[in-house]
Amino acid sequence: MSDFPSASSVVRPASIVPDIGPAMYESSPDCVKVLDNGGHILSMNRNGQCAMEIDDFAPLVGLPWASLWPHEMAATVLTALAAARSGATSRFDAFCPTAKGTPKWWAVIVAPIFGADHQLERILAISRDVSGERQAGEALQHSAERLELATEAAELGLWTWDPLSDQVTWDNERTCAILGVAPSALPVNATRFAAEFLHPDDVARFAQAVAASVAGDLRFQFEGRMRDKNGAVRWIELYGRPQDGDGQPRTQLVGTIADITARKLAEDKLRDADRRKDEFLAMLAHELRNPLAPIGAAAELLKLGKFDEARVRKTSEIISRQVSHMTHLVNDLLDVSRVTGGVVKLDTAPLDLRDIVADAVEQSAPLIRGRGHKLCIHVPPEASTVLGDAKRLVQIVGNLLNNAAKYTPDGGKIDLRIAMEDERVTLSVADNGIGIEHQLACRVFDLFSQAEHTSDRTAGGLGLGLALVKSLVEMHGGTVACFSAGTGAGSTFSVSLPRLRDGREAPLAARAPERLAGQPRTLDILVVDDNVDAAAMLAMLLEAAGHRMTVEHSARDALARIETARFDVCLLDIGLPEMDGNALAARLRGHPHTRGALLVAITGYGQESDRQRSEAAGFDQHMVKPVDTGRLMDVLADVA
């Protein structure tokens, strides 16, 4: 609009076009219209007709100019015409489509044309197409809105640095919030910014980054520390790039600032977790090699043959003991995975915590006696009832007792105590053992934390027991805590559970049914396992127990075998080639010779999802390798 002629420069002719000046009238790039005093169209220049996409102007002559505008703009147009009649010039911006419907925005000037007698003779209306400028402005505004939205979502601050004036300005409130300054704060130079906001150890790197960016016309990036108004160290990330200034190339550095303290803390935690994971894997390798050594030596010894019964028995006991140890390690790994993964379901019932303690002490007694510890138990005379899963609660107390026994030098003292409050029951296990350093006490329940305070490995284990305790206690709605006065001062672990106060008492333990009297019969058992050694050893064990054994190493051979034989029990590996054990079980369930047989999965897959799949396939039992032979014998005895 600033390029339009002013009212004083408008020619004041006595007639319509010729006196305005035909050259000026036709050469104008704008849409120029001459109206009569009533606002009716008299003429329009050719460029105007092109701009309005008018093919035939004749029908428009004599029409009210206001009628060419959209209805909502009519009042604005009529007001401008009225002003021209009173001798004033008006300006307005308005939307009006062309004759062919093309949407356009116009900057309009409406001015009076006076005759020689200074009386109003005509009205001049000049319309300039500003659609392009309008679209550019809208696009710029939209871009600015999107930038604001993006910076808000990403919690980014904006800044500008002018190297000519050496001034840094904050371009949004987020920048002020990150730096802890008021929005009205005065600009600072780069040196003052570094001195006032950055950690002293990072100032030199900041100066080098700025100098390199400006000198090399490069993108600027800096990550460093700053101290907030409370003195706490926080991390910020600055990113920027040179930008053209007013007529001078690359005169500004514009960019963003972000508070990355949370990210840095997360990175530190990830690095720490990765380090502890590596230490755990080293521990796992160590713990697995320990039992493998005596097992391997026993196997080599048995190959020599010609041993008396006592030596064979001793060798077998060593193998059994070490396999049991390895099985315990693997079960711990699977258990902590299931519990922390949320796939374990609690089978809850009202329970007396005193009974839980009795069962846990019975399990931990061999370790406690073996280390020569004195165990003192303090329980209240009345029932301390909680709602929980008996198996998991025994596991919690047993892990705490085992932990105390392992980390207390031989001949130590362990105190187990139950205390009751109105709403809570607290069980604590205290020892006079090696204690825990203060900085480790808060992390002792983390996965794989064992390596940090038992690097000598004398206690053994994988550092999973306490992590499992914490997860199981929280599943019961309780809390767990650890206290130690420091190295050599012993430790106290306490578990707090909700007390059951609705009048229900813990049920008496159900007595296990007595075995039916009589001699168990011999069973026909089919073993299917592609591991030849595992299948042979299992068959030898069960054959020694008096059963008739058949061994196959593939599902195809097993299906062929059942065509000519009947079996009472089928022990199937899951990970078979060609057809897995689940598919084989489904086939056996549909065959008349094995439809009523007991199907037992013997597998290395022990997750809950694996058990669900085996049950869906038709298995009656799911046993994880290495098989608990006692449990297997019980199952077979039930069948026999």
Automatic annotation (TrEMBL):
This protein's record includes keyword Phosphoprotein: yes
PAC domain ranges (all copies): 90-142, 220-272
Keywords: Phosphoprotein
Catalytic activity: ATP + protein L-histidine = ADP + protein N-phospho-L-histidine
Enzyme class: transferase
UniProt-listed Enzyme Commission number(s): 2.7.13.3
Pfam families according to UniProt: HATPase_c, HisKA, PAS_3, PAS_4, Response_reg
Residue numbers of 4-aspartylphosphate PTMs: 573
Domain Histidine kinase: 283-501
Keyword Hydrolase carried by entry: no
Superkingdom as given in the UniProt entry: Bacteria
Residue ranges constituting the PAS domain according to the UniProt record: 143-217
Gene source species: Massilia mucilaginosa
Domain Response regulatory as annotated: residue spans: 524-640
Name of the protein this chain belongs to: histidine kinase
